Each structure stands twice: as structure tokens, then as C-alpha cells.
Amino acid sequence: MQNYDEIRIENLECFAYHGVKPEENEQGQFFYINAVLYTEIRKVAAEDDLNQTTNYSKVAKYINELMTRETYQLIETVAEKIALSILLEFPLVQKLDLEVRKPDAPINLNFTSISVKITRGWQRVYIATGSNLGDSEQLINTAIGQIKGHPQIRDVRASSLINSTPYGVTDQPDFVNGAVTFHTLLTPYELLEFLQGLEIAAGRGRDNNKGFAVEELQSNFLSSNKSVRWGARTLDLDILLYEDILIDEADLVIPHSDMHNRDFVLTPLISLNRHLKHPVLNRSMKQLLDDLTERYAVT
User: Fold this and answer.
1) Please, are residues 90 and 82 in contact by the beta-carbon 8 Å criterion?
2) Which of 112, 165, 208, 244 is most exposed by smallest CB count within 10 Å?
3) Whole-structure pTM value
4) Residue 174 burial by CB count (10 A; 0-12/13-18/19+): exposed, middle or buried?
5) Residue 298: pLDDT over 90
6) 48-52, 106-110, 192-196, 242-246: range with lowest mean pLDDT
7) 21, 102, 210, 286: which one is catalytic?
8) pLDDT confidence of 285, banded at 50, 70, 90?
9) Is 63 exposed, middle or buried (CB count within 10 Å of its CB: 0-12, 13-18, 19+)?
């Protein structure tokens, strides 16, 4: 993530009613908020226009309103709610550090303050789209529309769709493929759950052009629930890159483990960002595609 300028709010005093103990909810206490808002200042500073920047007075009032609007047991919950709300309410804030301090926490020991500090921000993501059952273009475009409609996703851009021959298992229809990039506040696993939900929903539709259920098409080829690797499916949404994060788990691998071997993935990615690099292989997508093309030529 690029370096940003900072707007700081320090020791914002708020009287609120958060806590596990009943007396905390009834009597209330003072909390203190520290926030570092990461944004870009140079352009707005040159224009000297308050309407073009993040108004720290509005942010401070907004934090105080959030602190007093609801009651929560955990300051962890308070911090999470405030951070997410600021990022959604103030579009120029790309990332923030937020600390919620509770100096009067009910602990029978000498201490200065108890606090929770978190960092949250918009993350750049690239995903691959694919389909070879039903009305593939419509299924992909519908999924893109649903991605655009998610409140924690913004700046969505989609590549043109291309046709490709099947990869791995060749005894199935040709695919329609593309790529999508966006910024999101969802964690990798939250994003995975959201995308899998779109895949499941797409599998319940019907192919109106051919007059029979998508499930009937699936039975003629391979299962669309990914139980068969590289099998036919109504909709495939794979996370390719999530910033420079590396994940290697049974149910999620980022970067996608096989993306560098797939021209139908690399080509749409290059159209979205020709300078995009693979965070592990440290090569651009264009270089990876050239490598792949050269391998195909040799074989």
C-alpha cells in the first residue's frame, strides 16, 4: 500500500456507557479516542478548499456520536464499529489507526489506562471470473453487479470477457473468462465467503435460452460445486491477489497457486493493470504471460 499523509485526532474525550458490568452501562464513564487518518493532503492543500479534504471537526463529532449512540460490552466492538463507519463515511480516508482508551476500567489494580488499538483500511483485490454453463456472460455480469452493490466494496473495474478452451479437464464446454479489481474492507475470508455465496446463488438459476435447468447441464458434464477440480461450472470467482498478503491454508491460497500458468487469467489482469506484479514470483503479469507463451511455443 502506498504511503499517505496523516490527519491525527488525539485524546478525544467521549462520555459513554460501554462495559461488561451493569454499573458501567448505567453510570457511564469517560473514554478517550486516538485516530490517525491516512489520506492524501498535497492536492487539497494546494487548493485550500475545506470541501475537498477530510474535515477533522466532522470526524471528531462523528466519533463522539458513534460512541454515544449505542452501548457495547467490549471496547473491541466499539473500536471495530468506529473504524468501519469512518472508512465508509469519509471516502478520502484510505486507512486508519484507531485506539479506544478506557482509563476507568473496573480493575482493582493500579494502572493508567486500558485500550484497544486496531488498523483498518481499503485493500486492493483482484479476482478471476469464469463460467462455461448456462448464459455465461450474463452470469458473470450479474456477479459483477452484485460485487458493486456490496457496501464494503468500491472502485470496481472489470476487464473485457474472453473465450478460452478448458484447462486441465478438456472434455467440457469452452469457458468465458475475465478479471475484476476493486477496493474492499472485507478480510480475505469474509471476501471468500461472499464470493462463494454468489457462486452458489448462480448455480440455482435456469438457462432460459435452452429451456432446461443449469443443474441438468451440470449432470451432463462435471459438478459445478468444485468437487471436481477444473470442472464445468455456472460461475467461478477466485481470489487472485489481495494486496501483497500471502495465505496458504486448506481453503484459501493467496496469491492463487496456479494463476501464472493460465493465460486466460493473465490476459484480463494485464488489461486492468499492466504494471501489476506477482508478490511471490516478483514478475509482472506481462512477463509471466510472455513466459507462458514461450513455453507453449516450445511444446
Assistant:
1) no
2) 112
3) 0.85
4) exposed
5) no
6) 48-52
7) 102
8) very high
9) buried
- At residue 207, what are phi and psi to the nearest 5 degrees? -85, 95
For residue 261, give Cα distances in angstroms to 176, 252, 294: 17, 18, 12
Tens digit of each residue's pLDDT (9 = 90 or more) over 194-203 = 999 999 999 8
Active-site annotation holds for 117: no
Res 41 pLDDT > 80: yes
Sign of the Cα pseudo-torsion (81, 85, 87, 88, in order): positive
Rounded to the nearest 10 degrees, the angle between the axes of helix 285-298 and helix 263-272 is 150
Question: Over the stretch 48-70, which tens digit does the pLDDT of each residue have?
Answer: 888 788 999 999 999 999 999 99
* CB hemisphere CA count around 253 (13 angstroms): 7
CA of 252: how far to CAs of 131, 171, 292, in Å?
A: 20, 27, 24
- Helix extents (H) in the chain: 22-27, 42-47, 56-69, 75-89, 136-148, 188-202, 214-220, 263-272, 285-298
Give Cα 11 to chain centroid, integer Å.
30
The four Cα atoms 158, 161, 165, 169 give a dihedral, to 10 degrees, of 40
pLDDT at position 73 over 60: yes
Q: What is the DSSP letter of 245?
A: -
Pairing assessment for the beta strands 206-207 and 236-242 based on DSSP bridges: unpaired
> How far is C-alpha 4 from the geometric centre of its chain's CA atoms?
20
Q: Are 269 and 288 in contact (CB under 8 A)?
A: no
Residue type, 131: S
